[in-house]
Amino acid sequence: MKRRSFLPALAAAALASALTSTPVMAAGDAYPSKPVTLVVPFPPGGGTDIVARLLAAKLAPRLGQAVVIDNKPGASTAIGAAAVAKAPADGYTLLLAASGPIVIAPSLYAKLPYDPLKDFTYVAPLVSTSFVILANPAAGINSVKDLIAQGKANPKLNFGSAGTGTPQHIIGEMFNQRAGIKLAHIPYRGSGPLMNDLLAGTVPVAFENPLPSMPHVKAGKLKVLAVTGAKRAAAYPDIPTVAETGLPGFDAKPWYGVLAPAGLDPAVTARLNAAIRDTLATTQVKAQLFALGTEPMSMSSAEFTAFVKRDLDKWTQVVKASGATPD
Questions:
Q1: In the chain, at which end, N or C, are there fewer CB atoms within 10 A of the end residue's CB?
Q2: Same domain, yes or no, for 145 and 203?
Q3: How many domains does the chain have?
Q4: Is 259 exposed, middle or buried (0-12, 13-18, 19+ CB in 10 A)?
Q5: Considering the entire predicted model, what is its pTM?
C-alpha cells in the first residue's frame, strides 16, 4: 500500500494561515515615508499662507513627517494649481486651494491650465469664511435694507472689490441679482487699495474679508451691515446675516481646502483626510482659526467632492448672469 505524503498539505495549510493572520500593508499604512509638500499659490504672509502654516505645523505630528510649505504665487493662483495638477499622484504634493480659483475662475476664463474636476483629488476641506458687507458711515447706509433701497433709488451707487473675478466681486454680483439692483462694480488691485478708498468714502460699499476689516469697524471708521453666510459667524455672533436682514436664503462663503493630483490612492486620501479632520477638531486649532475669522469644516473626501461640484454650479450661474469678464 502506497504511503500518502502529508507535507504538501501541511505546507498549504501553513501558507493559508500566514495569509489570513498577517495583515497586508496597504498604501495608506505605508504613507507617508518622506516629507509632504503643501503648495500655497499665494505669497507668504497673507491669510491663506497663515492658515497653511498653522495646518502644516499641527498636521506633521499626525503624519509622522514634516509638511513643507512651498509658496507658488502668480497668475491668480493658476501657477501653483497647475504645478500640483501635473505632479505625481503619490500624496507628497498637495495644494492648499482657495474656492475662487476652483469654482469661480472656470466660468470667467476661457482657458485655465487645469480642470477643477478632472485634475484634482479633493482630499479635505479646511475652513470657510463669511465675508462682511461694509459701508462708509458718510453713505448713510445702516442695514442691508438701506443698501437695497439706495441701490434701487440711485443707479450710480457703486461697490468696490479687491479685483475683477475675486470672491469680493462675485459675491457683490450675487447680491445684485438677489436684491434686484445693479450696484456698479469698481475693481481695485487688492484689498489694501480698496480699504483705503472705502475709508476715504471714495467708494461707499464693499464686500470684504472680515480679518482686515473688523479693526476699522471697531474703531468706528466703517459700518458692518451683515455677514454673507447662511448662519452667523462664530467669530462675530452679533453681526446678522444677509438672509436675516433682507434677502432670505442668501449664502456666500468662500472656503479653503486641501487638494491632490487626480488619481490619488483612496487609502492615502483617507489617511490624509483623517489626519486633517483630527487636526482641525482640536481646541487649540479651532481657537486659532476663529481668531482669523474662519471656521473649520469637516467632510469626507467624497462629501467634499460633491460639495465642490454644487458650489461650482452655483457660482457658474452667478458669473454668467452677471456678465463679468476677466478684464
A1: N
A2: yes
A3: 2
A4: buried
A5: 0.86
